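Model it.
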Amino acid sequence: MSQTTGNPSPPNQASLELDALVDQLVAYHGEEVSPASPADAGVRAVRRLAEAKMDAIRHRLEGDEDLQRLAHLGRWLEQDIERISPVFEARHARLVPSWALDHPNSRLHHQGRLLLSNAIGRDLEAPHVDDPLDPACDLASLLVGLESRHEEGLAHQVLDRYLSLSGDYEITRLLSLFRVCHALSGARRSLERRSLAGKDLEHPALLAEIMAECRRFLALAEVHADFRFPPLVISVGVSGSGKSRFTRGLVEGLGAVRLCSDVERRRLVDTDADGRADLFYDEATHHTYQRLASLAGILLDAGLVACVDGTFLRRWQRDLLRQQAEARGLPCLLVSFEADHATLKGRIETLAGLIRDHVGV
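Modeled.
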């Protein structure tokens, strides 16, 4: 855990850097389970959450245009909850209280800058904040908190790291819903400042600033409620050809979610009694590419650009992935990485040296 300089933080007042925070969230969400929860518990909880968000804003808005925007978001929330209710039911044992409840005074710092309170920016004054919810709620809160501060690049890094560490790619199907809810929380907090505007000597200017902030949150909610047509990007090439650098660029620049064949292969393959694993036998390869295809389909259904990093030496491997995009009527981009023999040899030797240093051989 990284801490800022100065006096040590009291318990539950840790100053966290981004990677350390994501690591904590992954560990917390992986440990907390509610096996006794009814199958519909997640759906009922998110309905309460969405209704409370809408009610808290509706009576504070005055302009017809703003009310129409809110009504449109309300209809979208109702439809999306209905659409993805099977996902909530399948994940009902994963409901957890918010991480922020145990860390109300934590802070998120990045390169010396304070970004968020309670580290994930969760609205602890919101109704039903104590309700156990899917882990997607905490993750979406962090993402919206960063986006609202124009830190989209950091939000992309958070999502990429969380998914890579947890392997919980199914969570992405719930993120748009929770992102809209948290953006509405931001609009509510803005509107609550209006009561203070009447006591300010610069009342008109302050009121205009408050309403502008509220509308920025409404616009952010609308962005996440929009239907998207994401492409599937398949990067093909041997180790050291530049695929990883390319896919990292897509993550940071486009918000793509990266699927790495090496990561998923290790996630699937069991180790033997000595801690060793045969990662490259034929059955492991087949299962790895099947998993990559399945995960790519989940990401595309969630409206996210899926970028798959693998060698893809065989046509059947590429076809498995391509079919996921074609079945959904989405574009598929095949990017082949090629380099001359000397360049590839140098890159691979460098990579091999790093691996040897890491494992101590």
